[in-house]
Each structure stands twice: as C-alpha cells, then as structure tokens.
Specification:
This protein is α/β, with parallel strands linked by helices and about 350 residues long. The protein is built from 14 helices and 13 strands. It folds into two domains: about 240 residues, Type I PLP-dependent aspartate aminotransferase-like (Major domain) (Aspartate Aminotransferase, domain 2); about 90 residues, Aspartate Aminotransferase, domain 1, CATH 3.90.1150.10.
Length: about 350
Amino acid sequence: MADLRSDTVTKPSEAMRQLISHAEVGDDVLGDDPTVKSLEKLIAGMLGKEAAVFLPSGTMSNAVALRTHTQPGDEIVVEKSAHIYVYEGGGYAALCGVSIALVEGDRGRMTPLQVSEAVRKSAGSLGHFPNGSLVCIENTCNRGGGTCYEQSEIDKICATAHELDCKVHMDGARLFNAVTYSGVSAKRMVRDCDTVSICLSKGLGAPVGSLLVGDLQSITEARRWRKMFGGGMRQAGVLAAAGIYALENNIALLEKDHNRCRELAENVNRLSKFSVDLDSVQTNMVYINTNDPAEKVVELLSAKDIEVLQISDNTIRAVFHLDVGDDDLNNAISAFKTIDVE
C-alpha cells in the first residue's frame, strides 16, 4: 500500500529507532536534557540563528511564535490559504487574541506590495484599526501546491515588514523542501526572518516534533509561552534524537520525493479525467483536479492500495515522502490510468 495522504505518515527507520533507544536524556523543562540541547544547537546553526526551542508540534510552534511577537488586539498578515489560518483551529484568535488580515496570493505566495497594503496600524487611525505587528510567510506553501517563494521576494517582504515595524515569522514546516527545490541554503533563505518554524515529522521522517528558531530574546520569550501552552516536555531526548537523525540524514533524500512527485503529476495530467497545474508542482506534493467527485476517486484509488487525501469536492492531494519508493510511484500511476478508462 502506498500512503500518499501526507508526509506526516512517515515511520522512523531502523537506524533512527536505534538512535532513539540509546538517547541520553534529562528533564528538558529544567534544561537538563543534553539531546534536546544538541538538537536545538544543531538547527540554530543550520539556520544562522542564535537559539531554538523544541516543541511537540508545528501548530504549537506557530502559536508560540505568534504569541511571542504579538499582543492581544494586534493583527497578523498571512496569505489566505496559509496553514496558520486554515489548519490550526483558530489558534491565532483563541490563544493569541489577534485578528488576521488575509492576502490573496499566487499559489500561496504574497508579494511585498500586498503585504504593505495589508498592514494596518493603530497609530493615526483614531483607535479604529488593530495594530499590525507580524507578517507570516509559509514556505513551502501547502495549499499553493507545495510552491516556493523566490528568495528575492522573501527578502523584499522582510524588508517591507521591518520598515512597517512588523516582525516576520516563517512557517517553514517544509523549509528543507524549499531549500532542495531552490538551491538556496537554509541559512540564507531565512536570514531576514525573525523566527522560523521547522517540522521534523513531515518529509524529514521523525515521529514527533518541531523547532522554533530565532534570536535569543525571542526564543527565551517563546519558552515561556511553550510552558503556558502546555508544551513543556521532560525526558524529550528520545524524541530529539530522532530529530537529529532526520536533520543529519534525511534532507538529502527530499530530492527523490520531488522527482517522483513530478513524474506522477505529469502522467496524471495527460489523462482525460484529471488535470494538474504543473507550474505549482515544485516540491513533494501535487493537487489533482478530478472530473468525477473527489470522494469517489479517493475510494477507487484506495481499492487499488493507493491512499490520497480529498481536499474539496473535485480536488485530491498526493504527497511523496521517504516511505514511498519507485514501485509505489509506478503503482500509483497505473491506478490513475485504470480509473481514467473505467
């Protein structure tokens, strides 16, 4: 069975499990877990930042970042299909007390001009406006099809935000997919971002965990919010060890995911009952438009041992990851071709 629903379905490899089983641990809330400390130091160095904090999930990492950079009554700017807005349960409102300005980007990507026009400031508005204090970039853009920002656009958005006295947070859940696609180093890509969230449990293959990375002051504040949000963990080294293995071994495997994804997209796009925006297929996911109801297509594919995710009435998503090989790719292509003529 090929599970293409998400790259979150990956399972730890035997080598990763071995590292987990021998991890040195301590109480991370007390600052005593050496493996967590090593993971945080590793990712901070990779991104050229001063510090990092280990969290249970990407959603919590984003929530902690938002709360670190904002005050209740502020406003954040995000693209309308961003994970922070669509898939995090309204946490920006419930946990941070902020309103949200939505930007309609191109395949999930905002422009510097759109950001500039979306930022509102309380000063000078006679108290009518919230205070825009944070701009959030998602890279790669999930609902955009796994698309990536051009580096020049990231730089300009950061410059625009900072000129408007806003911080910049990058939801980089799949940052290393963007790095793999663009050829830009992670350190350069996030140079001007104030904080960055990295997910270890998607394409990198760790079972649990995300990292929030930034300057020392922001991460010190983030640790306080992690505790308040219930994210403090004790002997978390068993999880951090998996993260270290993922960062040291699995980034190099992402290019294979991208290549397999592109091959599926091109094959499916040639079929009569399906279509794909090939320009959006840049990394490890493909959004497929279906003539038949998506629910029916999901069922037909499942009967052929291919699992995909329904996104809307006529859209499904397939995501490639390290647990999907060439045989799985070929089986998926065959399944789509069979459905196309049924």
